[in-house]
Amino acid sequence: MPLIELIYQSVTDGEMSKQTMQDIINEARQKNPNRNITGCLYYKNRTFLQLLEGEKSEVESLFAKIQKDPRHFNPKIVWQGEIGERSFAKFWMMYFNNENNDLLFDQPEEFNQTTATALFELIRQRL
Fold first, then answer.
1. For residue range 33-85, what is the model confidence (pLDDT) as tens digits?
2. Is-contact 95 62, C-beta < 8 A?
3. What is the pTM of this model?
């Protein structure tokens, strides 16, 4: 089966507590191995940007669940396409919040394919 990468953006109705974020990450790290999904979750200023990698049916099924999750408002796909290999293969779900502005990246109000892939490339370079 070919692999796909799906990047989506959503916002929250308020800042997420550290405990809520940890719960989200723990849940992903517990469930993603069964789905063979890897990826990275970025969160800052009430904005989620997540990259999911895996088989198309599994990734799309997970995104459908995310769309129904009340912690996400208006989740929308920024980019989706086939990939030759995983970018975050070692991570059932990597988390990066850029709280300390470690990345020299001006977060746009709304991501597009170019800005989203640029952000994840910066994160990949830190691995």
1. 999 999 999 988 888 899 999 999 999 999 999 999 888 889 999 999 999 99
2. no
3. 0.90
Task: Count up the domains in the chain and report the number.
Answer: 1
Please report, to the nearest 10 degrees, the dihedral formed by the alpha carbons of residues 43, 48, 53, 59 taken in order: 150
What local confidence, expressed as pLDDT, does residue 44 receive? 83
What range does the domain containing 99 cover? 3-125
Structure tokens at 127: 């691995």
Q: Which residue bears the tokens 């789905």? A: 35
Q: What is the mean pLDDT of the chain?
A: 89
pLDDT of residue 99: 65
**Euclidean distance between CA atoms 96 and 3, whole angstroms:** 23
- Assign residue 41 the CATH number of its domain: 3.30.70.100
State how far the Cα of 69 lies from the Cα of 90, in Å rounded to an integer.
Answer: 26
Asked whether the beta carbons of 42 and 123 are under 8 A apart, the reply is yes
62: which residues sit within 8 A by CB, 6+ positions away? 35, 37, 52
Which token pair is 110? 């709304």
